[in-house]
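Objective 1b. Sequence-to-structure analysis of Phosphoglycerate kinase.
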Amino acid sequence: MSKLIIDDLDLKGKKVLMRVDFNVPIKDGVVGDDNRIVAALPSIEWVIDHGGKAILFSHLGRIKSEDDKPGLSLRPVAEKLSQLLGKPVTFVPVNEGPQLEEAIDNMKDGQVLLAENTRYQDVIDGKQVNRESKNDPSLGEYWASLGDVFVNDAFGTAHRSHASNVGIATAMEKAGKPVAAGFLLEKEIKFLGNAVDNPKHPFIAILGGAKVSDKIGVIDHLLDKADKIIIGGGMTYTFYAAKGIGVGNSLVEKDKIDVAKEILKKGGDKIVLPVDSVCADQFSNDAKTEVVDGSIPEGMMALDIGPKSIQLFEDVLKDAKTVVWNGPMGVFEMPKFAEGTLAIGRFLGTLKDATTIVGGGDSTAAVKQLGVADQLTHISTGGGASLEYLEGKTLPGIACVSNKD
């Protein structure tokens, strides 16, 4: 069933409530990385160009006490958004009550307003009540009452059922008001959804990161769909242990060795593991390193894939028509152990006629660092959400969008 999209709606003169994902790093009142704000611009600009009033809601960080609130205000985001749009953005330092209602009532068509961090509602008068993150229906109903249309464009929280996404959507539908996906959410549905449900073959999944436990569901779901699943990162060594290969001091989830054995048995030659590793005598960028084939020596830990593994993975990838990559190949934050991740990003940028989709913080950082982001088909904006989507789970933030008639 196809979903209602923002460009299906008549927005002129409408109060358009928009859930965006402005959960960005802020230090000393300055936005550090504006990628998520930039990703929301097409939907915001569509609303203002089509005569709607854009009323934006977003969370920022986690609020566990009143002390958390000052450092997690969205005010710096409003300033950055204003710069990016090249027009004023009204920031309202609350997200409930007369001040917000009056500011919305005073809006003219084509104007933009950003309400304060929705997670301020998780702590009221010093008490942790989680109205936003536990989807308090009365809060969703209140926010829904402020607008004529709701657009969910926050893929980063699509795997969460919050008052500001599912709560608003539920109340809007009940009131007979439309709930649409923004362009960013539409893009995620299109690329991630198609990659998993209707991929062009050969379909290769590259899964990295530290823990097998984070990726079990994804591996299991993709085993029936992918032609090959390349495994990298720390979770490699739980698979090594499952195969009886020496792991030295490398990261191993002992309680997941049996799960890894099951995956290897079920996957057979679909599972591609590294054949060599960059090993270190300690977890440090200053460590003494050596490249080791196969078993990791005692006293050493594997912190990246080695050159033979890079070559092997490139051979597997070279004819791919669909590639989904989530998770680094090594300890990417240390330059000494970043080459495996960077090499994969570099190679993906050279693939022709392939749909290449990257998700997860480190993989995304790698392709941006290399300057190959624009050579890839899609960079997902949601870490946890993209993983759950790859697992085949229904995401509440997508399910709550109205279907087209």
